[in-house]
Amino acid sequence: MPGRLEGKNAIITGAAGGIGLETTILFLREGASVLMTDINHAVLDKALHKVQGLVKNPAGRVESRVVDVSKEADVEAAVAHLDSWGGLDVMFNNAGIMHPKDGDAEECPNDIWDLTMNINVKGVWYGSKHAVKSLRKHNKKKGSIINTASMVAIVGAATPQLAYTASKGAVLALTRELAIVHAREGYRFNSLCPAPLNTPMLQDFLGDDKAKRFRREVHFPSGRFGEAIEQAHAAVFLASDESSFVNAHDMVVDGGLTKAYVTPE
Ligand code: NAD
């Protein structure tokens, strides 16, 4: 049985982290070739080591490359690296930060606002821009760009992280517009909106603070945080041709959280 991503070349940003690594694993199992990119060299090396045996397609490959998504030259060079693979088919702009110094309107420092926007918004813009340039250069008739936003782009939280929330709202808006602009070229753009997850990004922030944890957990109809692999499954669908008529979509993977008022006891 051919994999659902057989023969597709993909770049994943933030590939050493929770969602990025799980997605790399599923992409490889489905027959894609993957360039894993991340800013963190040491963790990226470990992640590459973990997945190296999973390449399914005989012509497939997995490689890694240090990329800071807020630096356009880094992103451009990573995309150009896939020229020798036959060009990019799938771009998963997934890297993002949620800074501990982020806060409400008064608390959030200017430099943290700028850092968050540079990584979470400009990084997604650069990834989208160079993906389109590559798809055009290789005369591809279809391509899938998936941009990780967040549930907080669509619902407000009384535990504010203003820069983070604003950045993810921008990801939704820019993804929607790109989807419409490039639809007739066959290039699809969709957003992934995860709910709070069991990944280091959130769990390190919550630590052992039971009250902080409960404040969030109580809103899940399912009574639990999400798992990174549950986001990765959605990314596989959006990357594959199974989603050929899914465009400009905010794919909310949240266990029903954003549709819940009172949750089960
Ligand atoms: P994670 O922290 O495990 O992974 C993020 C990865 O991005 C890390 O490996 C990190 O090194 C990398 N990264 C950070 N800055 C970078 C940069 N400038 N350039 C390249 N790579 C960089 O977090 P995760 O949960 O896997 O998050 C992935 C995405 O999902 C993020 O965009 C995040 O905002 C979003 N998200 C996460 C949650 C959650 O609860 N974890 C919820 C909603 C949305």
From TrEMBL:
Family designation: Belongs to the short-chain dehydrogenases/reductases (SDR) family.
Residue stretches spanning the membrane: none
Name of this chain's protein: Uncharacterized protein
Keywords, in A-Z order: NADP, Oxidoreductase
Annotated Pfam families: adh_short_C2 (PF13561)
MF annotations from Gene Ontology: oxidoreductase activity
